[in-house]
Amino acid sequence: MIRVVLLGAGNVATHFYSAFYKEKTVEIIQCYNRKNIKLHPDQKEDLIITDLSDLKEADVYILAIHDDAIKEIANLLPFRNKFVVHTSGSVPIDVLGTNNRTGVLYPLQTFTKDTYVDFSTVPFCLEAENSNDLQTLKTLASSLSKKIFEISSAQRGILHVAAVFVNNFVNHMFAIGNDICKEHQVPFEILHPLILETAQKVSLTDPDSIQTGPAVRNDTKTIERHLNILKEKSQKNIYQLLTTAIQDKHGKKL
Ligand SMILES: NC(=O)c1ccc[n+]([C@@H]2O[C@H](COP(=O)([O-])OP(=O)(O)OC[C@H]3O[C@@H](n4cnc5c(N)ncnc54)[C@H](OP(=O)(O)O)[C@@H]3O)[C@@H](O)[C@H]2O)c1
């Protein structure tokens, strides 16, 4: 049985609580957050603490808190030589300091409190200073998922940049598409199958090999028509920037 203390009450802490709560090999013995928030309706109130000095003995302390607060909270922990991990994609392991044994338990997925997550498909990127602790993280993560990766802080930093492109930026493209549809009273849902097909294809093959559209075809008349439709300056700029980027990559001239 791995005894876990969860620190934080945001998206990740809430999903971790619900997922670990069901596992027989994991026991969440305590949760810390500043506002005394319950992470689950069944959670016993006496297991929630708001004062770090009340932290109990555990096998792993998971800091699922804001990136910018990880260092501060790690420094405030009232013990030494315990196993402390954070859950961030972009924060290096050494931010956790030297008072404790450190690690990273990064679930590479997007989490919002009210959206269901199937943890069995979530890749976990693990890092730990020593091999025993890494084994603890592997046992913990594999209670939820089969996709376990040992990833260094440097590799995690790289993955995080790539994740910003494939998730945050792509989602912004969806938002622009939605805005354009709304502006012209066309249902955005007509595009849903295209979105799903693109995401599905890219999980099976190299993205470069499935690039389609006017940019890669060098279809200048269509590109011109599209630019005339777009009224917002930022939409025009993004269209032009991405068209150039696609053409540069595929060796076409604008
Ligand atoms: N959401 C995702 O999709 C996702 C995916 C993978 C990894 N992560 C990582 O997981 C971590 C948590 O992300 P999240 O999305 O769960 O964040 P979140 O929903 O914004 O929650 C952040 C938590 O941090 C707490 N916190 C912030 N500053 C604090 C401080 N100074 N002292 C104590 N607690 C503090 C907040 O408490 P208050 O409410 O009291 O401010 C809140 O409970 C981050 O490192 C993030 O990079 C997030």
How are the secondary structure elements laid out?
Elements lengths: L1 E6 L3 H11 L4 E7 L15 E2 L10 E4 L6 H7 L6 E4 L14 E7 L16 E5 L2 H12 L5 E3 L2 H31 L8 H11 L11 H4 L2 H10 L3 H17 L5
Parallel strand pairs: 1-2, 1-4, 2-3, 4-5, 5-6, 7-8
Antiparallel strand pairs: 6-7
This protein binds NADP nicotinamide-adenine-dinucleotide phosphate.
Keywords:
single chain, 254 residues, alpha/beta, Rossmann fold, N-(1-d-carboxylethyl)-l-norvaline Dehydrogenase, domain 2, 2 domains, eight-stranded mixed beta sheet, 8 helices, elongated, binds NADP nicotinamide-adenine-dinucleotide phosphate
Q: Your description of this structure?
A:
With 254 residues, the chain is of the alpha/beta class. Helix content is 41%, strand content 15%. It is built from 8 helices and 8 strands. It has an 8-stranded mixed sheet with strand order 3-2-1-4-5-6-7-8, sandwiched between helices. Bound molecules: NADP nicotinamide-adenine-dinucleotide phosphate. NADP nicotinamide-adenine-dinucleotide phosphate binds next to helix 1, helix 2 and strand 6.
